[in-house]
Amino acid sequence: MEKRLKVSVVQLGELPSRVFHGPSGKELNGSASHEHLIRKIPVDQIKEYNSGRIIKNIKSASKRGVDLIIFPELALSSFFPYFYTEDNSLLDNFFEEGEFLQSKYNRLIADASRKCNIAVAYGYAEKLSQDERYNTYVLIDKDEEIFKYRKTHIPGFLKPVNNKHFQYELKYFKSSKLGYPVFDAQIGQAKAGKVKVGMLICHDRRYNAPYTMMGLKGVELIINGFNTPFSLTCEPDLDKYVYQFHYLPQQGQSISEGIYILSASRAGNVYGVKQIAGSCIISPTGDILKNTEELIEIVLEEDIDLNLSSLVKRQKYDNERANTNVLFKELKVYKDSNSAFKENIWQ
């Protein structure tokens, strides 16, 4: 059965100065005397801008026949854990409080998803209570079902250590204990049916367990939203490897589990910290089908065939089949009918 999807990865750019021209997270770096500056950050204005960019891209993608469009981690607020404060409540405005549709901005995006008949995924800060704050990623499918993943691997620091440390995500977010679910989401047209989708957020992509656990559940497509700075907060000497640390784990795991991986970044200056780009679409053969390292808002688009996911999976999860000539015959049929299929799988 044909299982093709048109997917769109939106890399959001930096906030324009008319929206935010406030303090840099690096400059504040934990000084209590600067907390009044955090109070002055126009969070509602930032969310209005970001949700507007998301909705504009949804409408545009719908006209191009896109089935699934994805956006970065913390797409609504931008990556605010660069600010440090002893009083977590000072950052409450960056969070969407309560159930998903209680948030005005989530409702607006869900409404755009419904009207445009397109599946949408993006990240936001979720607050259920003062002690339950999560870095959350959500997928709204074409049946208007809402699927959530909460970030498991939280990097950063609990408090300032020295002037080089400026990432306090560990202080503001609770790590999820719900594991790595795989959702049956209605993404494509009727022919494609439901797709087995998993989600990751940023640092999660560096670990083996998420891919293995989702792979055992038959995941076909993994969505990853991320924000990654050029100045790595632990080891600045590793900055020259920042793109390798991003691409290679995803390429290796795409082959291991036979999955497509879509990754969306926010690039450029975010609250005074320069973010890498690296938004990409990776195939089950480990090929980077599309990517960008431009530090601007940019859209990557690709038609993908989920049947390739099934073919690659058989090498790992169906040894009897993989040991016959059947798999190679099917791969040849796939290669002959897809001019973009890379030759290196035959080497």
Structure description:
- The protein is of the alpha/beta class and 347 residues long.
- It has a single domain (4-306), classed as Carbon-nitrogen hydrolase (Nitrilase/N-carbamoyl-D-aminoacid amidohydrolase, 4-Layer Sandwich).
- Helix content is 29%, strand content 24%.
- The radius of gyration is 20 Å and the shape is globular.
- It starts with a strand and ends in a 10-residue tail after the last helix.
- 42% of the residues are buried.
Q: In summary, what is this structure?
A:
The protein has ten helices and 15 strands.
Summarize the topology.
Elements: E1 4-11, H1 25-28, H2 35-39, H3 43-63, E2 68-70, E3 96-97, H4 104-116, E4 119-129, E5 132-140, E6 146-150, H5 169-172, E7 183-186, E8 194-201, H6 208-216, E9 221-226, H7 242-257, E10 260-265, E11 268-270, E12 273-275, E13 280-282, E14 288-291, E15 298-305, H8 307-317, H9 319-322, H10 326-337
Parallel strand pairs: 1-2, 2-4, 3-4, 8-9, 9-10
Antiparallel strand pairs: 1-15, 4-5, 5-6, 7-8, 10-13, 11-12, 13-14
CATH topology value = Nitrilase/N-carbamoyl-D-aminoacid amidohydrolase
Separate helix tally: 10
The name of the CATH architecture is 4-Layer Sandwich
Unreliable parts: 340-347
| Integer-rounded radius of gyration | 20 Å
Q: Compute the average pLDDT.
A: 88
Largest sheet, if any? 7 strands, mixed
Fourth-level CATH superfamily? Carbon-nitrogen hydrolase
Our estimate of the beta-strand percent is 15-25%
Using the coordinates above, name the CATH class.
Alpha Beta
How many discrete domains? 1
Key attributes of the depicted protein:
15 strands; disordered C terminus; 347 residues; alpha/beta; Nitrilase/N-carbamoyl-D-aminoacid amidohydrolase; globular
